Amino acid sequence: MAAKLSWVEEVQGWGNNPGAGADMHAMDTSRGMTALEWARFTGRYETSYLVHKLMSRPCAEQFCEHYKPEWHKMKELLALANETKTCLQKIAECIRSTFTFNYFNDPKEGGVMDHMVRVTTALSSPFISMACKTVCPETPPCVGKRRYSVQEILREQNDQEKRAQEKSSENRKEKSSQDSHSTVASKKKERRSSLQTSGLQVSQRNKVVSSRRASLLPLHLLSRSSVRPGIVIPKVRVTRAPQPTYHPEKMRRRSSVNPDIYLQLPKWRYKELKEERKKAEEEEKKKAEEAEKQKQKQRSSYQKRTFT
Length: 308
Known about the structure:
extended
């Protein structure tokens, strides 16, 4: 499938029309050769085989809405597996399986691998339906068909939606105009029965106008009522804070308190040994210095005796 799509993309740029799809009959301007002729001329037999394969199935089934993720060979294989076999058939299968060598083979057409690729790349698969959104599922890509860009497709859809909205708005306007004409005609036919009803209507209108004018006023100028009480100014009282009830205890000096209460630095054994070694070395140095001083004194006294 990936090879097919890559070949389609390669062939798409051929031909005089740059916006054309994967047209297999498009010819090169310099040599006048089609894609299949170029593949044969350059000795690429795999690409020519892929071209024939593409022409046999120009449209991918899994990109259509009517595709069902069902393997047509599944029923046949299940029927073969559920068939009862005789002892001779079982022995023959065992011998055949032991003496046959399993070599690496390419996947068969319409086999398990093809079915897996179709199911995973279908529009209804969870891999695609969760990761992306199809713009036009009703027109899948096909060989020789011009592929519109996503921007062009969205532009067309927006234009269609605008047209539909305009039509609906026009229909609504027509209906509203018809309703207004009918109401005007009914009002003309109806007449007021008496002057009292007209007086009541005038008073009601005056009330409505006064309420509208009052609604334009700010809230603090409106009359208070149960429905609209107006702005209630909150009363703020400033009071002093009470005296604090918590009095922290004064810490005593460490000299008057037992030092065992507080945490102390740990005394490591290796540090104690180092200190002991330093002390021993210092004592040895002092002893050596004292011995040298005594020797010098003895030498000086001996020299004095000899000279005298």
